[in-house]
Amino acid sequence: MSVQNSNQRGQKGRGQMGGGFGGGFGGPVQKAKDFKGTLKRLIRYLKPHRVNLIIVVIFAIASTVFTIAAPKITSKAMNKLQDGYMAKMMLEKMSEAQTKVVDQINQQMGQMQQVQKTPSSLQQTTVDPGTAKAIQEFMQLPMLNTVKDARQKADIVQKMLDLGQKMPAKAQVGEQNVKLTPEQINGAVRAIRETNGEYDFQYIGRIALILLGMYIISACFSLIMGLVMSGVAQKTVRDLRREVDQRLVRLPLKYFDNHPHGDILSRVTNDLDTVATTLQQSLTQIITSVITIIGYIVMMLTISPILTLIVVATLPLYIASTTIIAKRSQKYFAAQQKELGALSGHVEEMYTGHKIVKAFGHEKDSIERFEEINKNLYGAGWRAQFISGMMFPLMNFISNLGYVGISIVGGLWITKNLLGLGDILAFIQYSRSFTMPIAQTAQIANVIQSTIACAERVFEILDESEEIPDNPNASVIEFPKGEVRFNHVDFRYKEEVPLIEDMNLDVKPGHTIAIVGPTGAGKTTLVNLLMRFYEINAGKISIDGVDIKDIKRNELRKMFGMVLQDTWLFNGTIKDNIAYAKQGAIMEDVVRAAKAAHADHFIRTLPDGYNTVLNEEATNISQGQKQLLTIARAILADPTILILDEATSSVDTRTEVLIQKAMANLMKGRTSFVIAHRLSTIRDAELILVMNKGKIIEMGNHKDLLAQSGFYAELYNSQFTGQNIETEVI
Amino acid sequence: MLRLFKYLKPYTAMIIAVLIFVFLQTLGDLYLPTLMSDIINDGVLQGDNGKILNIGGFMLLVAGGGAVCAIIASFLSSKTAVGLGTILRSKVFGRVESYSLHEIDKIGTATLITRTTNDINQVQMVTVMIMRMMISAPMMAIGGIIMALREDRQLTWVLGIAIPVLAGVIALIASRMLPLFRLVQVKIDKINLVLREKLTGIRVIRAFNTVEHEVKRFDQANVDLTDNYIKVNKIMAFMMPSIMLVMNFTSLAVLWFGGIFISKGSMDLGALAAFTQYAMQIMFSMLMLSLMFIMVPRAQAAAVRINEVLETIPEITDAAKVEDSFTEKGFVQFKDVTFTYHGAEQPALRGISFSARPGEITAIIGSTGAGKSTLINLIPRFYDVDSGSILIDGVDVREMSQKSLRSKIGFVPQKAVLFSGTIIDNIKFGNDQATEAEIRHAADVAQATEFIETMDRGFEHEIAQGGTNVSGGQKQRLSIARALVRKPEVYVFDDSFSALDFKTDARLRAALKQEIAEATVIIVAQRVGTVMDADRIIVLNEGQIAGMGTHRELLDTCEVYKEIVSSQLSEEEIA
Fold it and tell me: Of the ranges B174-178, B381-385, B503-507, which is most confident?
């Protein structure tokens, strides 16, 4: 059991770890049988928390919207910076050029004045009237560095650029200093008009403040969302767990006998834990992811529809690469899981059978087999890791493709002044962050699938049919005497295999019924029927003349005391374990019961006496001592009818004597069904039931049965006259 | 954990290659923003379209190269990390196989299984993650800082503040969360325990009508767990918002101060754009690193457990020079043997001396804790004695090889253990060379043929893991057959008939008697009926021999024996 448990824990650990790191990529996905139905049902459990959930959704949306909007707003500041930068650069260069050109022209003018004296040169330097006019106008422009007004500056720059084209090449302004496209120049002029060649820190500061506020609000919202959600998920699962537990209480024993404990355990713990984790993380994630994707697309569209097209064009690549990788890695993960199972199986066997492996000198074979599985595991393992590990670089590459595309197209557009630098940067930020929510949604789809499968397994328990409820007119036997009667009882565990047919039994109060037979003869069947753990198929079992179906289960079971070979004690003090039989039992009762069970002495030798805490496997006391404790418990319960198992195979002789005495104490004056191993018990019993393969094959007292010389006689002889048997057998 | 990495030695070349490729890939990733900034500065701001296209093409090449590097790195690191797991598994398993029972007892079978499987998986997983993400994260961070510095020195101080703040925030939250995480594990164990008890004790619970009590108990554990989880989740809820906040503030600071530098003319726009992206990359890699703080402690616990296994050296090893030639066949002698379990205050056996000859049956009887199983576990040298000696055919068991010692012994344990495989496989476990006829004969003697033949496919019937598809009695009979087919010189039966019904027990003993007449037989038993006709009965009491002799002799001389007998047999049968 403990092995199973630790395995489960390991798996859980893996699950948790996989969650946040994309480790779940391509791992095997469990599928639910009825996805829709189970999902709906799971959602129903969230209903009590719908107010909280609505809050979560609102805050998730709000927080995400802020996150989405932020880069766009940042881009405004960036654009402003770019404007300022461009304007300043333009102004500087233009101003520089202006001075230079003005100097040049002045120089030329001076030369011209000198040259005018010689007529020949005048002809040479004839300037066409347009150029002259341009030069004239140019010279009349105020010096840029003396002008303060932004609009004026812009006009001057514009004029300078216009005039420059008409002026001789030497005097051309701009071209050699500023290499810009016409659109950029226009943009720069506009920028000058707006910014006056200065950085508008007031504007940028305002945006920074807005951003600051948005970031803080967004963080607060997402914090509130997280806080609210933490309660929702866990409380939902708590309620589910509670409901499962309450259902388990009402399930018939058949269910527990047919389902391995490990399976039930893992449903209540592992499966529900998965549900909790998913509710906690994936629910908010999916809300934010979807909103983010939509928001990003919208934002990208507002910046540039065509650039958005580039990003959208990469989407099929994502989808294709993810599905291909998921498919391939799935195969290797399945193989890995298989080998891991084989390995665990081998390890478990070899370790639990270590003594035998050693005794028969099989260490080498065992290691060889292990190495073989280990090699296979390696093969499957690294392939699975590699293929799933390719996911990230591929995604990154595709994302980079988009990045490069945006850089090129965006760059070209900036030169055409179709976009600002800030826009491009914001766009890049959007497109790069775009992959995250997409990958998340893909992953969550897997997570949700396996979560629904988990939830389905839990719901399966809830859907099991309960024990037949007590008859509303069920009676209570106030002072039970302990008369038990079986009337034509038929019983079978499986429809097709009849087990008990037409059984009749009449037990008087205080009688002892010995049940004998080989191991596995189905002695627990009787317990199951008497205590109505299972329903009989036909006939009637009655106690003190009342059909047990007409007695409240609680009351019925109160009449019985059980001491079985597999003692059941729980992790708690010895006192609690004994007092378990009777609610509100006080210390004196417990000690009295322990004394009657001959357990008092050994309990007092323990370091903490009655307060000794039995550990998980109750390995801190011996098997025999455990049995004494269960006897004490039965004594305290003071039942009318007893069911005892005498088997004491792993109990030392001295304790066995004590147990025998204790049992004798217990049986006094009670109707007892004893799974008998001791001759004395058998011989003194009023009735012996001989069972074999689940059926009662002979019935009667010792003498009668011996006289029949049937199975019982053979059994009796084989045990107690061991030495004489040789001749018979051979 | 680091100690385990020494097993990575065969992969040194691969790891270096991984480092190089990851470095190249990181370089590529880091280079992209620089190129982007070139596009802005040289292309966009200069209006040079050709340059934009050129640099863009180059960016594509860099991105492609990065992807190729990353895939190669992933290939190598997968092989390395899974290889580490494989090596560890092999080492741990090999070590455990060399353990004597003493080490197995000390560590415990269940946890050894977990250590060989889950714990190693855990370490492997984390190694994969480290190779995949954690290597690139610091490189990205350092590379990012270098590039950022290259791009602009003045703005780096923003990172100089942001990184420690981020690290501090993560450390603070993690330090508050980790203890709670551990507590959650404890509570999960608790709920598991309560539930397990409920399931195993379902009959008792219903019989005692304590359903209400149990529901309350479960509910308590349930609420407790939930409350703890909520606490953890609440702390966790702070994680993402605060990290995002720090990162956003950083980018804002970069923008603001970058703007100021630009206005002063000490920075250009392309540099600012690149710097912003570097800052984000650095912060993301910090985030990745922080995940390590969550993962590594888990793996650390696993690594400690694995190391413990690897560092436990088996006590029992073959002597340097072994004596493997014998003159007799199965003569077992105990000479004044005293044995103490590790950590026990008192010896489990004291001054045990006896000898068992071929053709004799020696029975050992006594109460639980008297040392019966301990005594016979010493014969195949599952444990070593403190003082005295055990001789087989005149040779001390410590002086012969374990292999030749154990080949002399047919051991049938108290708890029958079968392995998955067919019934034939299981019987053959005792002797690989056994012929089919020998196997059938062994099954006949062990009274197993009868039930084997009722199973589908008879001797080819598959035994499930742990032998869950055969009953206790059937298991015992198969494990007896397994010992018989070995045809050993010494048979050791440790209470091996307990799960058999009286009839089968008697028949089996009768058949055995003939089969193993030549061999030395040592039987531990609880039932007096089983030992009554032994040649020698050793009565053990509290680790010492309380009497030795035949049934009749002991009845007259040994009080303890008499007590045992009278508890089991009626007066007339004793006589």
Answer: B381-385
Q: Give B85 to chain A, closest Cα distance, Å.
A: 8
> How many A-B residue pairs are in contact by the CB < 8 A criterion?
493
Mutation choice for B interface testing from A519, A578, A640 by most B CBs within 10 A: A519
CB contact under 8 A, B29 and A396: yes
Q: Name the band, by pLDDT with cuts 50, 70 and 90, for residue A126.
A: low
Tens digits of residue pLDDT in A222-234: 888 888 888 888 8
B233:A268 CB<8 A = no
Asked if A389 and B74 come within 8 Å (Cβ–Cβ), the reply is yes
Interface test with B, best of A211, A346, A348, A711 (most B CBs within 10 A): A348
Picking from A215, A374, A649, the nearest residue to B90 by CB comes out as A374
pTM of model > 0.80: no
pLDDT at A355 > cutoff 50: yes
What residues pair up with B549 in beta bridges, in sequence order? B537
What is residue A719's predicted lDDT score, i.e. its pLDDT?
57
Q: What mean pLDDT is predicted for residues B333-352?
A: 84
CATH T-level fold of B414-487:
Rossmann fold (3.40.50)
The more confident residue out of B43 and B531 is B531
Q: Which amino acid does the sequence have at A212?
A: L
Write down the domain spans for chain A. Answer: 36-64+220-250+260-463, 74-202, 482-559+642-647+673-719
CB-CB under 8 Å, A261 with B200: yes
Q: Do the domains at B332-408+492-497+520-575 and B414-487 have one common CATH topology?
A: yes
Q: Are strands A695-700 and A687-692 parallel, antiparallel or unpaired?
A: antiparallel
Please report, in angstroms and rounded to a whole number, the separation of the first and last CA atoms in chain A.
Answer: 42
Q: Which residue of B has its CA nearest to A181?
A: B47
DSSP assignment of A556-620 equals HHHTEEEE-SS----SSBHHHHHHTTSTT--HHHHHHHHHHTT-HHHHHHSTTGGGPBP-TT-TT
Higher pLDDT, A218 or A198: A218
What's the average model confidence in pLDDT over B409-430? Answer: 86
Residues in A closer than 8 angstroms to B202, CB to CB, are: 253, 256
- CB within 8 A of B540, min separation 6: which ones? B364, B365, B366, B370, B371, B372, B375, B546
Report the length, in residues, of chain B. 575
Question: A36-64+220-250+260-463 in CATH: which number?
Answer: 1.20.1560.10
Three-state SS string over A478-494 comes to CCCCCCEEEEEEEECCE
Q: Which two tokens stand for residue A130?
A: 């347009």
Which residue in chain A has the smallest CA separation from B562? Answer: A653
Buried b (16+ CB within 10 A) or exposed e, A370-402: beebbebbbbbbbbbbbbbbbbbbbbbbbbbbb
In this model, does residue A724 exceed pLDDT 50? no
When mean pLDDT is compared across A294-298, A503-507, B319-323, the lowest value belongs to B319-323
- Is the pLDDT at B382 greater than 80? The verdict is yes
* Helical axes A201-250 vs A421-463, angle rounded to 10°: 10
The pLDDT assigned to B558 comes to 87
- Give the start-to-end residue ranges of the domains of chain B: 332-408+492-497+520-575, 414-487
What residues of A are in contact with residue B83 (Cβ under 8 Å)?
378, 382
Smallest Cβ–Cβ distance between A651 and the set B241, B368, B409 belongs to: B368
The strand ranges marked E within A179-294 are: none
CATH of the domain spanning B332-408+492-497+520-575: 3.40.50.300
- B387–chain A nearest CA distance, Å: 23
Predicted confidence at residue A168, as pLDDT, reads 59
Task: Determine, for residues B71 and A393 on separate chains, whether the beta-carbon distance falls below 8 Å.
Answer: yes
Fold for the domain defined by A482-559+642-647+673-719: Rossmann fold (3.40.50)
Q: At what angle do helices B211-264 and B156-200 cross, to 10 degrees?
A: 170
* Identity of residue B192: N
